[in-house]
């Protein structure tokens, strides 16, 4: 089969690799119908996250079960399924608690020795604990299929940030980051009942999506100017709930600066220097809580799926460029240059 492989920074290739096969009786082999490029993939593309030459890449995908191991009970050949970005056994204490990303037998797609999602097929370990079945009719609905793909990562990650920030009905929320995760954080905050949502971003195409997703205000400034602008909107105080969806020093400093005393920050931006943006003394004095991390999206999919199926929420606008598998390298370049928000892959 063909799959996306990273050889070095800025060296993404689509090449022939061995077909996936059942290795354990709990595996399935899945034919990929839709995949995408994540903002976190760009850290490897830029050389800021280490990868071995020839390693697979991609962790967001959905598709059709083509083969199932003898001990797979929940799925059959022909089922349409979505895969969260981490596989998990579904039986350990962490999985029982909903923290599937800490499953001792779990792992990330594209890790050394595993298939990546940006290819024609994937071997899925612990299928019963990992995959979620989708309605078969969705396979022929291109728009719905795209919206459902967001369940594999970006929608659940935005939801995790909103939960970590303590968003509830009537909340005032500020969202740092205008990437796909930040935009899904806006959507999640709206879904949870936030009354006012301030989105920080300066790219018109992205802030237009933010407004469509529920943002009531847009702040284009950055750094200290952004802090001042948000506080001015809120009568000198910050937001009760802040979503941090970038992971840099500046984004974390901004998040702390725009949080109301006694408020909470939900952080899901993959950390790249963000720790240096934290002053525990300030957070201590102002009673600011920090909660988040890698999102256990497998736990959130059953909650979010009905709203996507009904059209109550539609995250598909975050995918603003669609490519075939052979065009994936160009898709990385487009996201790296910020000419695309999030690239959809149709193998």
Helix fraction by DSSP (H/I, runs of at least 4): 25-40%
Largest sheet: 7 strands, mixed
Please work out how many helical segments DSSP would assign: 12
Radius of gyration: 20 Å
Give the overall pLDDT as a whole number: 97
Q: What's the SSE pattern?
A: EEEHEEEEHEEHEHHEHEHEHEHEHEHEHE
% residues in beta strands:
15-25%
Distance between the termini: 11 Å
Strand count = 18
- Name the structural class: alpha/beta
What would the principal axes of the Cα set say about the shape? Answer: globular
Uncertain stretches:
none
Features:
six-stranded parallel sheet, 347 residues, alpha/beta, single chain
Characterise the protein shown here:
- The protein has 347 residues and is α/β, with parallel strands linked by helices.
- The protein is built from twelve helices and 18 strands.
- The strands form four sheets. Strands 3, 5, 6, 9, 10, 17 and 18 form a seven-stranded mixed β-sheet that branches.
- Helix 6 links the parallel strand 11 and strand 12.
- Helix 5 (154-164) packs across helix 11 (297-310), helix 6 (180-191) packs parallel to helix 7 and helix 8 runs parallel beside helix 9.
